[in-house]
Amino acid sequence: MASEEIKKKCLESFGGWIASLGEDIGILLQVAKISTLNRDTREAAAGGINYLFKSLDLIPDGIDDIGYLDDAFTVRVSAKLVLEAGGDLPGDVKARLDELSGEAGLVKSLLGEELFARFEAYVRGLRLGAARGRMVSEIIDDEANFKDFEAEVKQFVKDYSAPEFHRDEKNLIKLTAFFDAKLPRESRLP
Questions:
Q1: Residue 27's CB: how many other CB atoms inside 10 A?
Q2: CA dist., res. 76 & res. 79, Å (int)
């Protein structure tokens, strides 16, 4: 488990991450929308957003206090992957992606090397996934699909109201256990 200092930083940070989830998803949408970017960059952004929709559509996972944190974590790792894939991004978008990517380091500190590697591999694989009947490739390749996707993202951003994050160390234990149980043990990098 993470050090006391890391736990404290997580408990101080995660409420803000949940509060900014709508805005952060909006940043990923801006990246996915830039048709001149390379495919890897756009797919990394769209995959992270698609995860949110998949998450919203699932049966509740019983961890209400931290239900949006996996989405906030996914956004941060997606931002890291977007930056790694490269491309000419607007300055304000790149600045926010840099912040989000940097915050992925706190996720790594909480989860530990092995579990974070599994999580990053999972997020990398989201570009091959689907949510709400749309594959990431279909979002990127089909203008009508992208318009529907964009409308859903904008509606989420508009309607999103951050739940309260209870700054209880037990939530960190639950969250780590959730990731350990959910993530494949072997890397499945695309």
A1: 25
A2: 5
